[in-house]
Amino acid sequence: MEFKFNFELGPAEPPGTGEAERFPTQPERGSEAVKEHGVLWEELEGILEDAVVEEVEVAAAPEPLCLRHLNVWAVERALSLEDRGEAGVSGAIARRSDLVPGVYEGGLKIWQCTFDLIEHLSGVELEGRRVLDLGCGAGLLGIVALRRGAAEVHFQDYNGSVIEGVTLPNVALNDDEEEEEERPAKRRRAQGPEPRPLSRCRFFSGGWSRFGNVHGGSFKYDLVLSSETLYNPDSYGELHDALSSLLSQDGLVYLATKSHYFGVGGGTHLFESFVKQKEVFDIQTVKVIDDGLQRCIVTLSFRKAHCG
């Protein structure tokens, strides 16, 4: 079963904008094997050579950041004409389907909640942190973390085609000397040259349940960032288990989401009930955006009893 949002060309709207929209069930989402993607420079240069690049200014501290990313529609056209090992992705694009459960999870689009979380992160300390951009798609959340001085950033998306065709190129587009110049001169002298962004990144594709064990418990994240991942209640168990495996004991999860997704009933309140029943995390709504359909940013942290 596939799903089509029927969007016109233009800025992507987040899932669940209209009451008529319906979301498919996502059976066996977490069963997709995990793969790590290396940086293949020749292939990356080929993608960027004729790329249509856009710039977006996002809120950040102490001043806004200008991020570069591939044009969504140009990427879709390119992937629909090429075979990057996931025929289902190019097929979904050809049929203008934004979601095909277990095949393509919508990672080519940039959703509104992503920008909500980017703005909120302007008040969050990212420097020196180990960060995971979960369900990364275009990777803007992780790129902001890199530009803000995160020690290491990992990107995960369900689809390898998204990682190789979108996420990696977007990180490369922001892999320049600006980040070094933006650091205060006093701090640059004290800390020395900052490692370039791509040298601080790892890229993964696959389902959440298997990704939760990708590091074998030897590596934990200080911050996990994710946008538009709560629309389907069927995936809550896999998401919860992955977060509990990947987050450090004093770490924090930031989820940008809608209060309610029409169709399958997912959203902030249903996920909050799910988390409370599990008794592993404390969950808190830290920001509410009343602009059309209500959007929220929630945080998860381990309960003290769990930490002990």
UniProtKB/TrEMBL annotation:
GO terms for cellular component: cytoplasm; nucleus. Pfam families: Methyltransf_23. Its EC number is 2.1.1.85. Residues 1-32, 173-196 are annotated as: Disordered. InterPro entries: Methyltransf_16, SAM-dependent_MTases_sf. The keyword Transferase applies. This is protein-histidine N-methyltransferase. The keyword GTP-binding does not apply. Keywords: Cytoplasm, Methyltransferase, Nucleus, S-adenosyl-L-methionine, Transferase. It is found in: Cytoplasm; Nucleus.
